[in-house]
Design brief:
- By secondary structure, the chain is an alpha/beta fold.
- The chain has one domain: 3-Layer(aba) Sandwich (UDP-N-acetylmuramoyl-L-alanine:D-glutamate ligase), CATH 3.40.1190.
- It is built from eleven helices and nine strands.
- Strands 2-1-3-4-5-6-7-8-9 form a nine-stranded mixed beta sheet, sandwiched between helices.
- α5 links the parallel β4 and β5.
- The chain is globular and about 45 Å long.
- About 4% of the residues have low confidence.
- Its EC number is 2.7.1.50.
């Protein structure tokens, strides 16, 4: 798997694909910059009068419901249907699904009405997507990974896709494969937007043309390793501000050597019965 992740990184940087985001106002700048850092090109258009045109210029679409509002979700549907029409992948980040009925409804509706390539969320969000009620606390991840795994499999059975569940151990699964990754650091939870950035990275890898399972695995590997390196680089009196900056730096300088040294898969890729 390491070789595949390295190959996907090289491919992304060779192509430098355009990734269309309809994302949230809290982390829009971070999402744009992490997309640039990995080697792709971001565009953040969300007006319904141009999203269909913009999708036709892009190689992937990232939909993030973090700052949900009636205007942007309609734009998400328009953009998503156009993306499906022209055959580019969609990454859905159901931020805070389960926190309110309105938010959960829209997360589920986007999944039901669009062909989603990757859903990237924490355990509670994935549970909410399948109709279960997790211990959603704002947008924090929970420890309900076993329940989230069951819910992810239900989502995949309903409509084939890749589900990436992020937490202390990241889990990526599709119809036949599972992979668990243990890169990252608790410090990432102290910086707003690391989950959103993971979704933008997933969209960037999807835009390079690799399959959605590898795209999600590559994205979580890159940001997890970058987080570990950023934390290890901190000196006395350096905190989350320095960590955040260095997270971008290490994504930008990610290479084969770092992936070979630091990628930590708890289980080899396995085929699910």
């Amino acid at each position: 798997m390491k070789d595949q992740v390295i190959s996907s990184l090289h491919k992304l940087r060779d192509i430098s694909p355009l990734v269309h985001h309809i994302t949230n106002s809290v982390t829009i700048n971070d999402c744009a910059n992490i997309t640039l850092a990995i080697g792709a090109s971001p565009v953040m258009a969300d007006d319904e009068n141009e999203v269909k045109e913009m999708v036709n210029l892009a190689k992937a679409l990232v939909l993030n419901i973090g700052t949900l509002n009636a205007r942007t979700v309609e734009s998400m549907l328009l953009a998503g249907k156009e993306a499906n029409k022209i055959g580019i992948p969609i990454v859905l980040d159901p931020v805070g699904a389960g926190a309110t009925s309105y938010r959960t409804m829209w997360a589920q509706r986007l999944f039901e009405e669009l062909n989603i390539s990757v859903i990237r969320g924490n355990a509670s969000e994935i549970m909410a997507m399948s109709g279960l009620t997790g211990n959603t606390k704002g947008v924090d991840s929970s420890s309900e990974s076993d329940a989230a795994m069951s819910c992810a499999k239900e989502l995949i059975e309903f409509k084939p896709c890749t589900v990436a569940i992020t937490g202390a151990v990241d889990i990526v699964l599709d119809e036949s494969r599972e992979l668990r990754l243990k890169n990252g650091t608790k410090m990432m939870k102290q910086v707003t937007g690391t989950g959103c950035m993971a979704s933008s990275l997933t969209g960037s890898f999807c835009a390079s043309g690799v399959d959605s399972f590898l795209a999600a695995t590559s994205a979580l590997t890159v940001i997890g390793i970058a987080g570990e390196l950023a934390e290890c680089s901190l000196k006395n009196n350096e905190g989350i501000g320095t960590f955040r900056t260095r997270l971008f730096d290490y994504v930008h300088t990610m290479d084969a050597n770092k992936i070979n040294l630091y990628m930590e898969a708890l289980e080899n890729e396995k085929i699910r019965a």
